[in-house]
Recover the amino acids of this structure.
């Protein structure tokens, strides 16, 4: 394979730039020409394709966001749009494609591979960690660290005023950001879409912790359950302690990637190019048990995400 393309699609995630760099540099190492496609699949609709050189990716390993920018592209859901995408790839002689994004982006990649024969490799780039086939997605670690930073600050003020903080984090239908930031911040309670919650039980846990000398409480709620404001209102009806909602919001998607995300980016990007170099397409790269893995992209997007109940129980036991 002599010419490959690269795009970032769906929600941005810290580490996407580091992955772009790894793909470009690995491609150049193997003597390939690498083309960056701007704004996800939209770049294929609008012929927004740029050659990537060694220096195109200088000084971006530490930057959040994505230099190729990203977008949601409705046209890609139509047959006409998909044909347009293939025409643009043909125009530049692009023989293989690396798609960095979440499950939606992978579905686009699957269509290109399955129906149009374009060898495509998926790199899981989303803060949500909602893909079952990989232990971690690119951006998740940084997003959780951003949440931790904010929750630490909330703990300071909540303790001074003896309040209850309800902190809303992202993750769509997946509770992993809430689970990991809840455990790592010492939150007393997490509320996730995977487990039904009981407000009376939450009030009892708060009361028990206060009886044991606690001066504040942190409840981390995943956006897939409900908003922090709504939850705080409901909780306030059952407790005399002052409840304050905070929605962390898009801050979670920005910032310099953590070491863990930069390492994932380097390895995912390099693996994706090695596969294309060997003429292998239609795969998704990931990490499992600390080893970089690859699997069929169709299988990867079909796997149902499971929730780590053991970690949830751990939080219940150690956060009193
Ligand atoms: P995140 O998890 O961060 O939201 P994502 O990749 O899941 O990222 P989506 O908005 O679901 O984000 O998908 C990104 C883009 O992928 C869509 O805008 C569309 O262009 C393309 N896409 C999604 N689903 C399909 C599909 N079934 N067929 C073709 N293209 C698709």
């Amino acid at each position: 394979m002599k010419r490959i393309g690269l795009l970032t699609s769906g929600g941005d995630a810290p580490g996407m730039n580091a992955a772009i760099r790894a793909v470009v540099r690995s491609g150049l190492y193997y003597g390939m020409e690498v083309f960056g496609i701007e704004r996800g699949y939209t770049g294929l609709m609008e012929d927004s394709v740029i050659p990537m050189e060694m220096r195109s990716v200088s000084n971006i390993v530490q930057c959040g966001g994505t230099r190729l920018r990203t977008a949601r592209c409705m046209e890609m859901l139509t047959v006409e749009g998909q044909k347009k995408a293939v025409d643009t790839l043909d125009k530049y002689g692009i023989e293989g494609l690396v798609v960095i994004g979440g499950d939606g982006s992978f579905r686009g990649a699957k269509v290109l591979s399955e129906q149009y024969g374009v060898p495509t490799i998926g790199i899981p780039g989303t803060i949500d960690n909602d893909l079952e086939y990989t232990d971690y997605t690119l951006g998740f670690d940084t997003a959780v660290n951003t949440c931790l930073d904010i929750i630490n600050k909330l703990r300071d003020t909540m303790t001074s005023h003896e309040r209850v903080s309800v902190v809303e984090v992202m993750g769509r239908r997946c509770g992993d950001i809430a689970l990991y930031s809840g455990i790592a911040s010492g939150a007393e309670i997490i509320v996730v879409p995977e487990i039904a919650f009981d407000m009376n039980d939450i009030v009892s846990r708060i009361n028990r912790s206060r009886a044991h000398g606690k001066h504040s409480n942190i409840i981390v709620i995943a956006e897939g359950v409900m908003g922090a404001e709504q939850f705080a209102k409901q909780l306030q009806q059952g407790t005399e302690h002052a409840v304050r909602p905070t929605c962390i919001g898009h801050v979670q998607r920005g910032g310099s990637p953590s070491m863990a995300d930069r390492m994932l980016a380097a390895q995912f990007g390099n693996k994706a190019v090695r596969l294309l170099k060997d003429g292998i397409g239609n795969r998704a790269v990931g990490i499992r048990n600390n080893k970089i893995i690859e699997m069929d992209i169709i299988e990867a997007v079909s796997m149902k995400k499971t929730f780590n109940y053991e970690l949830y129980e751990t939080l219940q036991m150690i956060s009193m």
